[in-house]
Design brief:
Largest sheet: 6 strands, mixed
Order of helices and strands: EHHEEEEHHEH
Shape: globular
Radius of gyration: 13 Å
Number of domains: 1
Distance between the termini: 19 Å
Oligomer: single chain
CATH architecture: 2-Layer Sandwich
Number of strands: 6
Amino acid sequence: MEVRFSNPEQMNLLGYFLRDLLRTSLSDERRTTIARQLKGSILFNASGMRSTLVFQKDTIEVCSGDGNGASSQITGDLESLLEVALNGNYLAHLVNGRIKVRGNLFKLLKLMKLLAVVK
């Protein structure tokens, strides 16, 4: 499964962070299967940067800025998102309010499995 930028010249740090996390995660076949089940788009808003992941059949496109019609949204600071990726403990950050989610929670739970570097 390919992870690519829609417009590399306008990509922000958050987009690079998401792309590299997904590329690392998708080296595992089980996680690739999870990614193929995701459809639509998810907006990330972290530390003043906005990036959208658009899930298609064989690609994940990382777009800078707001996605048109994103079905889900994750908001928080970049440090919290990094901690979730490195430690896999997203529940603690949700409970204490450092990360906020809106939209399809089942889709977001699947996405969190993809973004966590730890297995």
